[in-house]
Write a structure and sequence with these properties.
The structure is a single chain. Helix content is 37%, strand content 26%. It contains eleven helices and ten strands. Strands 6-7-8-3-9-10 form a six-stranded mixed beta sheet, sandwiched between helices. β1 and β2 form a beta hairpin. It is globular. It starts with 13 loop residues before the first helix and ends with a helix.
């Protein structure tokens, strides 16, 4: 299986990866080896993303894309290397500590809403680690002001929402904690095309207007690279190619292997 990816050539080093960031580096991964149990999936991986920049991870199944998100958030065993936010090491903090102290939020794949709870109750679940619950209510109100689709259904059970509205609720719930980094796992999975466009517009607004740093795994490589400032192609737990989203969209090897071209 790996043979077909050998054409991707020499892996980019940390200096090359750093150049793709816009200067104000927000999140850094240095020489990270991580996995589950005793199984190592990521090998000496480096990653750099700047404040209010977006990075899309693409590659074959099993390449380690979601493992990067899991490692940043605190769901994996880390064998070596470190993860930093604004120069502060956060490698071994728990997910709750990462959310509270440095503002990392994880937006899971579909089906993480509670269907029998109201939209408002689901939203307030996002503030479960806040000591001051009035802050969570204030942030929920701000979200309702921003997204009419949710405001109209705030007192209805979440099971009445369309697929696109459910994904909007999942994203919004993560926003209640006012995170600076959003880890987004497969935002388009299971959605009709019209909702996919809506979800990417929402993410673009969060990046551009609210200055969120976004790291995304996306099976729809074309859509993910069109959205993202930077793209990394992962193969066998290492970065095989990195470049701007546009560069990867126009790279014939990436096109042939991942874009159906």
């Amino acid at each position: 299986m790996a043979d077909q990816y050998e054409v991707l050539g020499k892996a980019p080093g940390p200096e090359e990866l750093k150049k793709l960031s816009s200067g104000n580096i927000h999140l850094t991964i240095k020489k990270l080896s991580a996995g589950y149990g005793k199984m190592e999936i990521l090998h000496d991986l480096d990653l750099f993303v700047s404040k209010a920049q977006s990075l899309c991870l693409i590659g074959p199944n099993g390449a380690g894309k979601s493992t990067i998100l899991h490692s940043i958030y605190g769901f994996t065993n880390i064998f070596s290397g470190q993860i930093e936010i604004d120069g502060k090491e956060i490698t071994n903090l728990t997910p709750a500590e990462k959310l509270k102290s440095v503002g990392i939020a994880y937006i899971l794949q579909d089906n993480s809403v509670f269907p029998d709870m109201t939209v408002e109750e689901n939203l307030l679940m996002g503030g479960y680690t806040k000591e001051n619950t009035s802050e969570a209510h204030e942030e929920a109100e701000r979200i309702f002001q921003k997204y009419e689709r949710l405001r109209k259904r705030r007192h209805q059970p979440a099971k009445v929402l369309s697929g696109g509205e459910r994904r909007l609720l999942e994203i919004s719930r993560a926003l209640v904690m006012k995170p600076s980094v959003l880890l987004v796992d497969e935002p388009s999975i299971g959605l009709e095309p019209r909702y996919i466009s809506m979800v990417f517009e929402i993410l673009k607004d969060l990046q551009q207007t609210e200055k969120k740093t976004i790291i995304m795994v996306e099976q729809n490589a074309k859509k993910g690279l069109e959205f993202a400032d930077i793209g990394y192609v992962l193969v066998s737990g290492q970065i095989a190619i990195a470049g701007s989203g546009n560069d990867l969209l126009n790279n014939p090897d990436v096109g042939r292997l991942f874009l159906g071209g």
